[in-house]
Specification:
65% helix
Length: 184
């Protein structure tokens, strides 16, 4: 597969992940706080919950892309795993860096951080996809474990800063602020 075709897929992935991640931010609230929707959509404003905005659309796109390019690369799941894992890392580094400098967050900058994190993940994925190194399929397990961690920590979050909702000082879906009922 040509490098330009791979690049086209990764650019398409950026658009797909970014455009699906934006409305995904609101789905939990729109659903009336459905626990099922909470598996895929942020249940609060914690940094951890916002990782869902890139992971779930990224996993969906990876499954779509896999059907198209799986035979043209030896490192597909490695590229996807490292690309997807780099997105939340980039969010943490960029978000906490700029808010440490300013002392507060700015919604527009938060959105730009999300877009930049997705771009970084897709660039990393592209670099690995175009390499000739082979990788085992165990990288797919890395994606699965990451997705399971998002689900588990939505309903049973550790009391660490990444999991704390800065608006309500609560953790996860089980600790929703009073007045917000969580539906089965």
């Amino acid at each position: 597969m040509s490098h330009s075709r791979l690049l086209g897929w990764e650019v398409t992935g950026f658009v797909f992940i970014a455009m699906l991640g934006i409305p995904l931010h609101f789905c939990f609230e729109w659903s009336g706080h459905s626990r099922l929707i909470g598996l895929f959509s942020p249940v609060n404003e914690s940094t951890w919950e916002h990782f869902k905005l890139c992971l779930w659309p990224g996993v969906l796109f990876a499954l779509i892309e896999f059907r198209a390019i799986r035979r043209q690369t030896n490192s597909y799941w490695k590229a996807k795993a490292l690309g997807l894992l780099s997105m939340p890392v980039a969010i943490v580094v960029l978000f906490y860096s700029y808010t440490a400098l300013l002392g507060y967050h700015v919604l527009l900058v938060d959105i730009l951080v999300f877009f930049l994190a997705v771009a970084i993940g897709q660039i990393i994925s592209y670099w690995i996809l175009k390499s000739t190194t082979s990788a085992s399929r165990w990288w797919a397990a890395v994606i699965i474990v990451t997705a399971l961690a998002l689900v588990v920590f939505t309903y049973n979050p550790p009391h660490l800063f990444l999991f704390r909702d800065p608006v309500t000082s609560s953790y996860g879906v089980m600790h929703a602020p009073s007045g917000h009922q969580v539906h089965e």
